[in-house]
């Protein structure tokens, strides 16, 4: 995924399906300078992590 698209997803009022390593996630924030996204896992764990935007996949 690209920085611009990740930011569009964060700003969207709609829930857009995104995965990280095949696990559904919610993008909470995007650091466009460092290409890092703060994500929340939607697998029931509610775990939060910061990952490279390039590792996110939109479906």
Name the poorly predicted regions: none
The separation of the N and C termini measures 11 Å
Strand content: 35-45%
- Radius of gyration using CA atoms only: 10 Å
Provide the residue-averaged pLDDT: 96
Strand numbers in spatial order across the main sheet: 4-3-2-1-5
Q: Report the principal-axis shape.
A: globular
Which architecture per CATH?
A: Roll
Q: What's the number of structural domains?
A: 1
Counting H and I runs of at least 4 residues, what is the number of helices? 1
Can you count the beta strands? 5
CATH C-level? Mainly Beta
Any idea of the CATH topology? SH3 type barrels
Q: Please give the largest β-sheet.
A: 5 strands, antiparallel
Question: From N to C, what is the helix and strand string?
Answer: HEEEEE
- Structural class of the helices, strands and pairings? alpha+beta
In short:
The protein has 1 helix and 5 strands, in the order H-E-E-E-E-E.
Could you explain the architecture of this structure?
The model has no long low-confidence stretch (mean pLDDT 96). The protein has one helix at residues 3-11; strands at residues 18-20, 23-31, 36-41, 48-52, 56-58. A hairpin with a 6-residue loop joins strand 3 (36-41) and strand 4 (48-52). The N and C termini lie close together (11 Å). The chain has a single domain, classed as SH3 type barrels, CATH 2.30.30. It has a 5-stranded antiparallel sheet with strand order 4-3-2-1-5. It has 59 residues and is α+β, with helices and mostly antiparallel strands. The protein has 1 helix and 5 strands.
């Amino acid at each position: 995924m690209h920085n611009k698209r990740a930011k569009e997803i964060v700003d969207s009022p709609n829930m857009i399906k995104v995965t990280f390593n095949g696990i559904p996630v919610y993008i909470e924030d995007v650091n466009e300078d460092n290409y890092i996204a703060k994500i929340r896992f939607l697998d029931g764990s509610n775990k939060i992590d910061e990952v490279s935007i390039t590792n996110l996949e939109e479906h």
